[in-house]
Amino acid sequence: QLPDGGLSGLRIAYSRTLGYARVDAEVAGCVDAAVAELAALGAVVEDIDLVLEDPISIMQPLWSVALAIGLEAMTGAQRAQLDPPVRDLAAPGFSMSALHYRAIERQREALARRMNLLHDNFDLLVTPQLATTAFADGHEVPPGSGLERWWEWSPFTYPFNLTQQPAATVPCGFTAGGLPVAMQLVGRRCADTQVLRAARAWEAAHPFRLPPL
């Protein structure tokens, strides 16, 4: 059973970029409007100047080791069937030392402590969920965007894998071309119920719907 309780009184911090993300203007506009609605629903919302360094430098080595563990049991023929970015990301994991891995883990722990301290003043952190809208399949990045790897258009999700914070994605509008946009609700570590409460309140006030035809 999902929790009720609405948004009244919840202290919400809003960060448009986390200090490093490049966000499509239409995406940012939709999320800005949705955050204003959170305030109208009773939350106490504050724009914050959260400036993080992109934690992909932490996430990428950890991914590499995890993927290398998975690939180790595969035959060469099986590995050949994987998408090239997966093989590329796994490659450094096969030769990473335990000392290097532990140093990366300590960086992860420091990031988690910093984000937990944010929740001394706020119940939730809100960000865009993705930095762009959907693009043609068969591409790792949007064609013509100048991006190189997929995490550049998904810069808001992996930080909270690292910090072990619960997060929920809720639809919050459409671009002029009818493509969906979502915002991300992030709670303090182990505060899953509070994140679900906020997501339920948003859905009740803004039922999820299909894009305009």
Provide the fold topology.
Layout: E1 11-14, H1 25-40, E2 44-47, H2 56-72, H3 76-80, H4 84-90, H5 98-118, E3 124-128, H6 158-163, E4 167-174, E5 180-187, H7 192-205
Parallel strand pairs: 1-2, 1-3
Antiparallel strand pairs: 3-5, 4-5
Helix pairs in contact: 2-4, 2-5
Question: What's the quick description here?
Answer:
By secondary structure, this protein is of the alpha/beta class.
Order of helices and strands: EHEHHHHEHEEH
Distance between the termini: 34 Å
Number of helices: 7
How helix-rich are the residues, as a percent range?
40-55%
Rg is 19 Å
User: What's the total count of β strands?
Assistant: 5
List unreliable stretches of 5+ residues.
Answer: none
What is the average per-residue confidence, as pLDDT, rounded to a whole number? 92
| Class of secondary structure makeup | alpha/beta
**Oligomeric state:** single chain
Shape: globular
Strand order of the largest sheet: 2-1-3-5-4
What percentage of the residues does DSSP assign to strands (E)?
5-15%
Largest sheet descriptor: 5 strands, mixed
